[in-house]
C-alpha cells in the first residue's frame, strides 16, 4: 500500500528555507515506489512559493496563507497543520530541525500517536527498512534509529546534512488552499525585533566565521564580519564572547546555543571548550586560529593557524578577495 509523506515547508521573510529542499531530498530517499510526496506551507503572503515547491515533483501541496500567520506562533501554526493532518492523513511527517520544527514535531507526533526521531543527519534505506542516523552525547557518538510497526513517523532533519535534490519539475502538482483556523491563543506576536542583521541564516550558512573571547571587544568582530562577507558566510560566536557582551546571544554556537554544520567553520580566538564543540564539531572542515598552540580547538581542527587573529584574519580576507 502506498504511503503519504508530508513535508512541512518552512518559509522565512517570504522565501523557502534551504532545509525545506533538504527535507524533500530525505523524503525521496525514504519513499518507496508508489508513495506520494506532499507538502504544506504556512505563513502570510506565501502562496507564490507553491511554484517553487512544485518544481520538485511533489504530488500535492497544501497552502494556508493568512495575515494572522505572518509570525510564527506555536498554537496558530499547530492548529493550521492540524487541518492538513486531518485532510492528508499522512504516514510520515518530515520537518527541518529548526526552532519551528523542534517546536511542532512533538505536538504532531502526539496528535498522530506517532514515533519521533529528531536531529537526523543521514538517512539510509536497506532491505530491512529505513534507518536514521543522529548524533548523541553532544556529538561524541552517533546512533541509528528505525521505526517499528505501522504507526506514523515524525522526523526532523538537521540543516546542511541531507543533500537537496535538483528541481526537475517532474510530476503534476495539485494545490489545495485551506482556511487558517482561528484557535483561542494564549499569546499573540505583534512584532519580531531582530538584534542580529546577518543576511544569511547562521544554521544554514555554508561558511561560518566565529569569534571567542580572543576578539577582546565588540569591535573585534569587525574583521570577522569582513571575512564572512567575502566568503558569503555568516558570523557566529562562542558563549564566552556572548557573556562578555561582545555580541548578541543570537550568534551563540554551542550546547546552549545553535548547532551549525557548515562546509567551512573558522574559529577565531576560540579555546575549544566542550560546550562549544557540541555546536560545531559536525562541520565539514574546521579551521582554528589561536595564539595558544595548546588550545583544545586544535584537537578537532582540520587546519590550525597559531597566531594573532587580528593579524591572520585580515591576511586571509585579503587573499580571498584576490581569489574570489
What does this structure look like?
Residues 5-193 form the Electron transfer flavoprotein alpha/beta-subunit N-terminal domain. Belongs to the ETF alpha-subunit/FixB family. The chain has 324 residues and is α/β, with parallel strands linked by helices. The chain has two domains: 4-177, HUPs (Rossmann fold); 202-323, 3-Layer(aba) Sandwich (Rossmann fold). Helices cover 27% and strands 27% of the residues. The chain has nine helices and 17 strands. The protein has helices spanning 18-30, 49-54, 74-88, 99-112, 222-231, 239-243, 274-280, 297-300, 309-323, and strands spanning 4-9, 11-12, 15-16, 36-43, 60-65, 92-96, 115-120, 122-126, 129-136, 141-145, 153-157, 174-177, 207-211, 234-237, 264-268, 285-290, 303-306. The chain has a seven-stranded parallel beta sheet, sandwiched between helices. Strands 14-13-15-16-17 form a five-stranded parallel beta sheet. β16, α8 (297-300) and β17 (303-306) form a beta-alpha-beta unit. The longest helix has 15 residues, at 74-88. The radius of gyration is 21 Å and the shape is globular. The termini are far apart.
Could you give a quick summary of the protein structure above?
This protein is of the alpha/beta class and 324 residues long.
Keywords:
324 residues, alpha/beta, Rossmann fold, 2 domains, seven-stranded parallel beta sheet, five-stranded parallel beta sheet, 9 helices, globular, flavoprotein, flavin adenine dinucleotide binding, ETF_asu_C_CS, electron transport, FAD
Amino acid at each position: 500500500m502506498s504511503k503519504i509523506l508530508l513535508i512541512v515547508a518552512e518559509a522565512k521573510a517570504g522565501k523557502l528555507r534551504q532545509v525545506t529542499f533538504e527535507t524533500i531530498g530525505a523524503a525521496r530517499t525514504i519513499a518507496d515506489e508508489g508513495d506520494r510526496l506532499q507538502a504544506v506551507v504556512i505563513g502570510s503572503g506565501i502562496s507564490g512559493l507553491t511554484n517553487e515547491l512544485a518544481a520538485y515533483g511533489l504530488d500535492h501541496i497544501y497552502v494556508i496563507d493568512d495575515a494572522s500567520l505572518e509570525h510564527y506562533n506555536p498554537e496558530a501554526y499547530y492548529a493550521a497543520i492540524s487541518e492538513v493532518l486531518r485532510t492528508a492523513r499522512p504516514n510520515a511527517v518530515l520537518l527541518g530541525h529548526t526552532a519551528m520544527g523542534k517546536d511542532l514535531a512533538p505536538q504532531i507526533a502526539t496528535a498522530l500517536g506517532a514515533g519521533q526521531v529528531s536531529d537526523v543527519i543521514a538517512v539510509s534505506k536497506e532491505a530491512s527498512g529505513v534507518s536514521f542516523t543522529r548524533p548523541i552525547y553532544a556529538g561524541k557518538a552517533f546512533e541509528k534509529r528505525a521505526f517499528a510497526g505501522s504507526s506514523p513517523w515524525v522526523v526532523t532533519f538537521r540543516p546542511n546534512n541531507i543533500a537537496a535534490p535538483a528541481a526537475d519539475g517532474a510530476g503534476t502538482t495539485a494545490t489545495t488552499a485551506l482556511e487558517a483556523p482561528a484557535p483561542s491563543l494564549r499569546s499573540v506576536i505583534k512584532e519580531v525585533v531582530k538584534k542580529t542583521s546577518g543576511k544569511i541564516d547562521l544554521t544554514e550558512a555554508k561558511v561560518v566565521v566565529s569569534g571567542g573571547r580572543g576578539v577582546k571587544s565588540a569591535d573585534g568582530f569587525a574583521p570577522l564580519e569582513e571575512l564572512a562577507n567575502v566568503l558569503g558566510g555568516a558570523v557566529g560566536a562562542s558563549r564566552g564572547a556572548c557573556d562578555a557582551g561582545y555580541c548578541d546571544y543570537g550568534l551563540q554556537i554551542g550546547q546552549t546555543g545553535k548547532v551549525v554544520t557548515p562546509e567551512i567553520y573558522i574559529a577565531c580566538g576560540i579555546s575549544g571548550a566542550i560546550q562549544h564543540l557540541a555546536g560545531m564539531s559536525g562541520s565539514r572542515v574546521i579551521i582554528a586560529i589561536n595564539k595558544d598552540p595548546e588550545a583544545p580547538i586544535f584537537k578537532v581542527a582540520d587546519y590550525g593557524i597559531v597566531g594573532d587573529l587580528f593579524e591572520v584574519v585580515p591576511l586571509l580576507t585579503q587573499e580571498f578577495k584576490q581569489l574570489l
